[in-house]
Amino acid sequence: MSMTAEHQITAGFMPLFDSAVLVAAGELGFAAQEGIDLKLHRETSWANIRDRIAIGHFHLAHMLGPMPLACNLGLTPLASETIVPFSLGLGGNCVTISNAVWAGMAAHGAEADLDPARAGAALGALIRERAAAGGDPLRFAVVHPHSGHNYELRYWLAACGIDPRQEIEIVIVPPPFMADALAAGRIDGYCVGEPWNSAAVAAGTGHIVTVKARIWRNSPEKVIGVRKAWADENPEALAALLRALHHSARWCQDPANHGELAGVMAQAGFLGLPPTVQMPILTGHLQLGGGAERTIDDFFLPFDKAANFPWKSHALWFYTQMVRWGHVAHTPENLAIARDCYRPDLYRSALKPLGVALPGANSKVEGALQIATAVGATGAGLVLGPDGFFDGQIFDPDEIDAYITGQKFAEI
Amino acid sequence: MVRTALAVLVIDENRIRAAIIEAGLREAGHERVTVIHDVTGIARRIAEIEPDVIVIDLENPNRDMLENMFQLSRAVKRPIAMFVDRSDQASIEAAVDAGVSAYVVDGLRQERVKPILDMAVSRFNAFSRMARELEEVRGELESRKVIDRAKGILMKSRGLSEEAAYTLLRKTAMNQNRKIGDIAQSLVTAAGLLGPAEDE
């Protein structure tokens, strides 16, 4: 322990690549430069992270984007009020399916091009063919019910006319077990972050059919969830940490540092996987299975495109999906809780002294930017988007009621 | 008042610790105890066992899967909630500190469950203590081996008797305020570096 550090901060993380900004902040000195002694604890489940935040073992943690909302909305046991002053990146997930399902989809017109609409149409045709033949529904896995993975998988399927509640089964599997479960035939497909998609492709047991960046480009994924009671009492420590994370994220985005970053994440205490396995998420160049490969624009962004800004519109979109799938009732009280969870004000006030580009608004219309666009911001050079949903839908947080009632298969 | 015996399910990949918990539950008079090490096919097992209380270790990466299953009424006939008594923060902390978590069937009275959780916490702590002690014993054995090698090096290079070699190591350790095992390790390492290359 550094005796000179001004702030002692304890943080939890799951062994996933998108913890990189937090890990690098601790390992590469960004936290120390801000006077923080940052202690990182690897965890084995999101439930453990939630519990340890609730009882105060952790001040903050790497979390699934919807998880702090679920805590504040009372959807999980042992929850404590959690706020989000920083996002750990955009994108990074894929949908991977078994070789058998891929063969079935290919027979219905699927091609190895990651096009969500084409892949969804082929999957829908396969699902109906199986149902007509009396087969069991396909079983897909996600990492947690309150996860970007669950919501984007359901969004994709529903937009392609597949009812994820009736026509497939969705189960929960921990990320490191996904590829094995697929190979063993316990599941037919899954949605998870890297490197657990490339792992199945490398093993010859899976095909990547689409990616988060194609379903909703530049969309939110992991965040820093902070125990609110701690944040209220330690505003300076939190601001110092947000600056450290900002510098870390900028470093992580730079291709010149990708080799070193992959080396840090490869260590046994973090991912414990060879650096080569971590290159696809950093380069966006993925093997899809069967020899096909693709480079995906904006596959995973740890910093660019205001990736660290905790947009309230991101939190509100997660909320609309929680309502859609029956996780929470849409009431004025719940909406207010969802609106207050992400805290762009804290991000902005912590980074203001750095003179960097900061979005002027707290929310944006999601899906409105067709091309990369320079936006009005304090500081210079902030580019956002494109941020389209693959089905052309637009989410305007000011029209949230209409968005919620207009959703297909909504349980409302 | 007649009470039906509680069905307790213990999920723990660590077989020794699971056995310790099971023994504790049986000693406390619980006869309907089931232990599961592998969560494959657990939904079916839970439907068969219909547990009132589920005890699980926090190292288990399947907690998220289990919690999700507990919330789906079609997988488990009765809804299962986490053992939470908001008024009893100390007991929650003790459980997380010990590395254990418990889930109970909705509506089950806290006073029937608390002794089970308390027992699991104390057994988990006892297990951790045992594992730590075992680690220390292992370390001690390891350090004895190193001391023997260091003695051998001193006997050979300086023509000392075994007793004189040991005394020299001990005196050096005392003078430098270090452990004798550390001194021995330094000597073995140095001898390795200085020694003939074919020893590598």
Radius of gyration of chain B: 26 Å
**Percentage beta strand of chain B:** 5-15%
Q: Which fold name corresponds to the CATH topology of the largest domain in chain B?
A: Rossmann fold
Mind telling me the C-alpha Rg of chain A?
Answer: 20 Å
Total count of domains of chain B: 2
Span from first to last CA of chain A?
Answer: 52 Å
Give the strand order, joined by hyphens, for the main sheet of chain A. 2-1-3-11-4
CATH architecture of the domain at 7-90 and 220-273 and 302-310 in chain A: 3-Layer(aba) Sandwich
Mean pLDDT of chain B: 85
Main sheet specs of chain B: 5 strands, mixed
Superfamily at the CATH H level of the domain at 7-90 and 220-273 and 302-310 in chain A?
Periplasmic binding protein-like II
Structural class of chain A comes to alpha/beta
Q: If helices are DSSP runs of H or I spanning 4 or more residues, what is the number of helices of chain B?
A: 7
Q: How much strand content do the residues of chain A show? A: 15-25%
Order of helices and strands of chain B: EHEHEHEHEHHH
Q: What is the highest CATH level, the class of the domain at 7-90 and 220-273 and 302-310 in chain A?
A: Alpha Beta
Shape of chain B: elongated
Sum up the overall morphology of chain A in one term.
globular
Subcellular location (chain A): Endomembrane system
Keywords (chain A): Cell inner membrane, Cell membrane, Membrane, Transport
Protein name (chain A): Nitrate transporter component, NrtA
Organism (chain A): Mesorhizobium ciceri biovar biserrulae (strain HAMBI 2942 / LMG 23838 / WSM1271)
Write a structural description.
The complex is a heterodimer of chains A (412) and B (200). Chain A is of the alpha/beta class and 412 residues long. Chain A is 38% helix and 19% strand. A five-stranded mixed beta sheet of chain A has the order 2-1-3-11-4, sandwiched between helices. A five-stranded mixed beta sheet of chain A has the order 8-7-9-6-10, with helices on both faces. A two-stranded antiparallel ribbon of chain A has the order 5-14. In chain A, a hairpin with a 2-residue loop joins β12 (285-289) and β13. In chain A, α1 (20-27) crosses α12 and α12 (235-253) packs across α17 (344-351). Chain A starts with 6 loop residues before the first strand and ends in a 7-residue tail after the last helix. By secondary structure, chain B is of the alpha/beta class. Chain B contains seven helices and five strands; from the N terminus they run βαβαβαβαβααα. Chain B has helices spanning 15-27, 42-49, 63-71, 89-98, 110-158, 162-176, 180-194; strands at 7-11, 32-36, 53-57, 80-82, 100-105. Chain B has a five-stranded mixed beta sheet, with helices on both faces. In chain B, α1 links the parallel β1 (7-11) and β2. The chains are: A alpha/beta (412), B alpha/beta (200). Chains A and B meet through α3 of A and α3 and α4 of B.
